[in-house]
């Protein structure tokens, strides 16, 4: 039975076969689940905001990792993928500002955005670089 505090259970079909990146995506699942558990347990904004800050930092690290690999392997869709990352970051920051002024429903919107980000972006955009990275021997 699934724990009701868990929003996302890692699905092996999300694995790219590139360990550095798979580890980061999995770590993200953990962070999003922590946030969801805060939402479910009415954790105060004061205690939720540091977790959100970790998430923003980790997002930058993760996008940076992907973009570095794209640059070093001359990935043809680098600019496009980078622009999508940048939009995701902007949207996340806007949702955080909204939550800072708002309430737990804004926290749930933020969590929805992150879940969508993780699953949609991963299976649509990240999967596009999979073969290219594997051929370039990215691990
Ligand atoms: Fe990614
Ligand atoms: Fe990406």
Quick overview of this protein structure:
This protein is mainly α and 139 residues long.
Please describe what this structure looks like.
It contains four helices and no strands. It has helices at 19-40, 45-72, 78-101, 104-135. One fe (ii) ion binds next to helix 3 and helix 4.
Write the topology of this structure:
Elements (H helix, E strand, L loop, with lengths): L18 H22 L4 H28 L5 H24 L2 H32 L4
The chain binds fe (ii) ion (2 copies).
Q: What is the top-level CATH class?
A: Mainly Alpha
Termini separation comes to 34 Å
What CATH architecture label applies? Up-down Bundle
Bound molecules: fe (ii) ion
- Tell me about the biggest sheet? none
The H-and-E topology, N to C, reads as HHHH
Mean pLDDT: 95
CATH superfamily: Hemerythrin-like
Radius of gyration: 16 Å
CATH fold-level label = Four Helix Bundle (Hemerythrin (Met), subunit A)
Which strand-content bin applies to the residues?
A: under 5%
Strand elements, count:
0
Number of helices, where a helix is a run of at least 4 consecutive DSSP H or I residues: 4
Structural class determined from secondary elements? mainly alpha
Regions with pLDDT < 50 over 5+ consecutive residues? none
Number of domains: 1
Give the overall shape.
globular
Tags for this model:
Four Helix Bundle (Hemerythrin (Met), subunit A); mainly alpha; 76% helix; globular; binds fe (ii) ion; 4 helices; 139 residues
